[in-house]
C-alpha cells in the first residue's frame, strides 16, 4: 500500500523539492503551507508520516507537534534551519521521531522517512510479547504495561525499550541502539540515546526491571531474574 506523507513548510521551493523526491520513490505526498493547515490536513488525511518545519506562520512546528502528539502516534520528522542542540532536544521532547537540519540533501530526507516508517510499521515477527520483570511489552499493539497498568510512551521511547527488552540482560551499545531504533547512524550524536534513556527511566519509575548504564559501552535492561547472569 502506498504511504501518504504530509509535508508542511512555508518555503515553496523546499516543499516542491521534497514532494518531487518522495513521489519519485513511490510515496503519495500532501502539502501544507502553514501550521494550521498542517493540523487540519493531518487530522483529515491521517498520513503515515509528517515532515514538519519548525518556523511556520499561524502555528509553529513545535505547537503542531505538541497537538498532534496528544491526538496520535503519527511519526514526525522535524525540519529546522538551526543546528542548535536546544532545538533538537525540544523537538525530541515534544515527541518528534527525527530531525533534519536545513539545508539538507533531499535523498537523505527520503532515507530518513523510510527508516522511520520501517521502525513504526508493524511486521509479522512483532506478534510475540515480551516480559522483563514487571514490564509487559506488546510490539504488535505498541503497548507497555507496568504491573498491569498502561504506560504512555512516545514512539522513540517504545522502540528503545523494545530494543533493550529483546536483549534483556545483555549490553546493547549506543551505536547498536542508534541503528536499531533510529534506523541509521547518528555521527557524533549518541546523546540522543542518553536523553531517551533518561525519559524511559522516569516513566518506568519503580519497576523491578532497570535500565543500567554500562560505562563506555551502552545500556542493558535487567530484572531480578537476569541480574546475576548478566
Q: Mean pLDDT, as a whole number?
A: 85
> What's the alpha carbon Rg, rounded to whole Å?
18 Å
Strand order of the largest sheet: 2-1-3-4-5
The secondary structure category is alpha/beta
Proportion of helical residues: 40-55%
CATH 4th-level superfamily of the largest domain: Response regulator
Distance between the termini: 42 Å
CATH topology value of the largest domain = Rossmann fold
CATH class of the largest domain: Alpha Beta
The description of the largest β-sheet is: 5 strands, parallel
Q: Detail the poorly predicted runs.
A: none
What is the helix/strand order? Answer: EHEHEHEHEHEEEEHEHHEE
Task: Write the CATH architecture name of the largest domain.
Answer: 3-Layer(aba) Sandwich
The geometry reads as elongated
Total helix count? 8
The tally of beta strands, per DSSP, is 12
Overall number of domains = 2
Q: Which band does the percent of strand residues land in?
A: 15-25%
Short description:
The chain has 230 residues and is an alpha/beta fold. Helix content is 41%, strand content 22%.
Describe the protein in words.
It is a single chain. By secondary structure, this protein is α/β, with parallel strands linked by helices. The chain has 2 domains: 117 residues, Response regulator (Rossmann fold, 3-Layer(aba) Sandwich); 99 residues, Orthogonal Bundle (Arc Repressor Mutant, subunit A). It has 8 helices and 12 strands. The strands form 3 sheets. A 5-stranded parallel beta sheet has the order 2-1-3-4-5, with helices on both faces. The chain has a 4-stranded antiparallel beta sheet with strand order 6-7-8-9, covered by helices on one side. It is elongated. The model has no long low-confidence stretch (mean pLDDT 85).
Amino acid at each position: 500500500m502506498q504511504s501518504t506523507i504530509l509535508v508542511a513548510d512555508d518555503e515553496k521551493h523546499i516543499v516542491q523539492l521534497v514532494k518531487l523526491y518522495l513521489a519519485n520513490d513511490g510515496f503519495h505526498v500532501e502539502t501544507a503551507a502553514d501550521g494550521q493547515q498542517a493540523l487540519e490536513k493531518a487530522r483529515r488525511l491521517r498520513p503515515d508520516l509528517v515532515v514538519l518545519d519548525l518556523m511556520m506562520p499561524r502555528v509553529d512546528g513545535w505547537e503542531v507537534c505538541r497537538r498532534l502528539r496528544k491526538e496520535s502516534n503519527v511519526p514526525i520528522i522535524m525540519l529546522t534551519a538551526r543546528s542548535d542542540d536546544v532545538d533538537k532536544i525540544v523537538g525530541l521532547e515534544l515527541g518528534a521521531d527525527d530531525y533534519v537540519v536545513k539545508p539538507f540533501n533531499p535523498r537523505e530526507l527520503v532515507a530518513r522517512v523510510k527508516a522511520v516508517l520501517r521502525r513504526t510499521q508493524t511486521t509479522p515477527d512483532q506478534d510475540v510479547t515480551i516480559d522483563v520483570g514487571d514490564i509487559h511489552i506488546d510490539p504488535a499493539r505498541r503497548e507497555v504495561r507496568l504491573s498491569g497498568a498502561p504506560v504512555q510512551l512516545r514512539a522513540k521511547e517504545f522502540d528503545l525499550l523494545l530494543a533493550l527488552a529483546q536483549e534483556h540482560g545483555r549490553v546493547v551499545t549506543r551505536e547498536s541502539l542508534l541503528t536499531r531504533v533510529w534506523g541509521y547512524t547518528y555521527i557524533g550524536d549518541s546523546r540522543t540515546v542518553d536523553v531517551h534513556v533518561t525519559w524511559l527511566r522516569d516513566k518506568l519509575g519503580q519497576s523491578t526491571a532497570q535500565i543500567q548504564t554500562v560505562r563506555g559501552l551502552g545500556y542493558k535492561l535487567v530484572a531480578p531474574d537476569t541480574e546475576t547472569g548478566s
